[in-house]
Design brief:
By secondary structure, the chain is mostly helical. Helices cover 76% and strands 0% of the residues. It has helices at residues 2-18, 28-31, 41-56, 64-81, 85-100, 105-118, 122-133, 139-153, 156-165, 172-184, 188-205, 208-224, 228-241, 246-258, 263-274, 281-293, 296-312, 320-330, 332-345, 349-361, 365-375, 383-395, 399-410, 413-416, 418-425.
Length: 427
């Protein structure tokens, strides 16, 4: 009898692990009210901020105290609309403040560096911050940002040095960076643990901006770890604080597509966001969903719209990584050119695997293999880097490497999505 109980318990345990795959994560009633496109609270706040500080600013823009809040308002408008010109307008104001400020030059330098990061001008941000560090400045704040930018340009040893110099387990800003470092090292459990500690601080301060940032990022981490229900809950908590958060709504659309296999709902969520938020990313995601559904003409149309949106917008190099993947199929030589340009900005494994992909598609499998072996293998745990590595290994008939990577990628099925998993299964 005792053995029978254990057998039944074992069967139930297996069933409990398998059942969630058949249960939808999303519940429309949880978030449907947030899809109301007339609710633009954050956008209205940003517009009010810009109007207020624009009126205060003198015609000759010498009111240095008004420059940073006005620039911040423009950056908020970028976040709420996706229009790149707002980032450029903010950059001009921060640069003016940096040039004319007598008492807060390093503060303007950090603002300007942050703006550069938003524009993916990482090398310029890194150079500016290093220059600032050698002048009278808030060293702690500058080193926190230097960690961020060093990670972006691939200076990982320097990033770790900066992180160690600001160690403080009670500091929110340190914890979110320690979380990022843990994720880079492939320790997702620690990345989540440190982000959860940061959430405790955000909650204890009852800081709405910190909560919004922490909840949404924690939602991403939970998704990467396959804890999709917890990811969903974090996204919902974010929307309760900021109903017009487009980034989180895109996360809901991804759950609908990649977890619930509900492409109709994924399109509905994306369509609601695209009414007021115009970043090119949405076209790429819709293209992927259409291809998964078998609507190839629609998928191709969305890809064209993606490229057109980049060309029409003031995005600079912000979408280079996406364009490299796109052109690797349609114009490999252009992809190689873009990948090499990207490497001048950030020498990271993520940039190198895109160069390897471009060379592979340009019929240079041996060169692609050399790039993977020298600059990617063992240097990143990012799923797309692993996938492109597998493509290169397969082209060079290194099938043991392909099988090893396939096993790793199976654990990232939600992050990669069903369309890509279909291709991975065929490797």
């Amino acid at each position: 009898m005792k053995n029978l109980v254990w057998v039944i318990a074992a069967v139930l345990l297996v069933a409990c692990k398998e059942d969630p795959k058949n249960i939808a994560i999303l519940n429309v009633e949880d978030y449907d009210s947030f899809l109301d496109t007339s609710e633009r609270g954050t956008f209205n706040e940003a517009t009010t901020t810009v109007d207020f500080w624009s009126k205060r600013l003198r015609p000759d823009t010498t009111g240095v105290g008004d420059l940073a809040p006005l620039a911040g308002g423009y950056e908020q408008l970028f976040q709420q609309t996706g229009k790149g010109e707002y980032l450029v307008m903010a950059e001009e104001l921060y640069r003016k403040g940096w040039e004319i400020s007598a008492n807060n030059k390093d503060g303007f330098a950090r603002h300007l560096a942050h703006n550069y990061v938003s524009q993916h001008r990482f090398s310029e941000a890194y150079e500016l911050l290093n220059e600032t560090l050698n002048t009278p400045s808030n060293k702690h704040q500058t080193k926190l940002m230097l960690f961020d930018v060093a990670m972006e340009v691939g200076e990982y040893n320097k990033a770790y040095e900066y992180l160690n110099e600001v160690t403080d387990m009670s500091d929110y800003n340190y914890l979110i960076r320690l979380s990022k470092w843990s994720d880079y090292k492939g320790n997702l459990d620690d990345a989540i643990r440190f982000m959860e500690k940061a959430r405790e601080i955000a909650d204890s301060r009852d800081s709405k901006p910190l909560k919004i940032w922490t909840y949404s990022n924690l939602g991403d981490y939970y998704g990467h770890a396959g804890m999709i229900s917890k990811s969903y809950e974090m996204y919902l908590q974010t929307l309760k604080l900021q109903p017009d958060n487009a980034y989180v709504k895109k996360g809901l659309a991804w759950i609908a597509y990649a977890a619930d296999d509900n492409t109709e709902e994924a399109h509905r969520i994306l369509d609601s966001v695209m009414v007021y938020h115009s970043i090119p990313d949405y076209h790429l995601l819709k293209s992927e969903i259409y291809e998964y559904e078998g609507f190839l003409a629609k998928a191709e149309m969305e890809q064209k719209r993606f490229v057109e949106a980049i060309e029409a917008g003031n995005y600079g190099t912000m979408y280079n990584a996406y364009l490299i993947e796109y052109y690797s199929e349609s114009n490999p030589s252009k992809a190689v050119q873009l990948a090499k340009e990207e490497l001048t900005n950030r020498k990271t494994p993520e940039a190198y695997h895109l160069l390897a992909l471009s060379e592979l598609k340009s019929n240079n499998p041996t060169l692609a293999l050399q790039i993977i072996e020298d600059y990617v293998k063992g240097k990143t745990f990012e799923p797309m880097a692993l996938y492109h590595s597998a493509l290169v290994y397969k082209a060079n008939q290194k099938y043991d490497e392909v099988e090893s990577i396939k096993k790793e990628l199976m654990e990232a099925s939600f992050e990669l999505g069903p369309l890509l998993m279909r291709e991975i299964n065929e490797l």
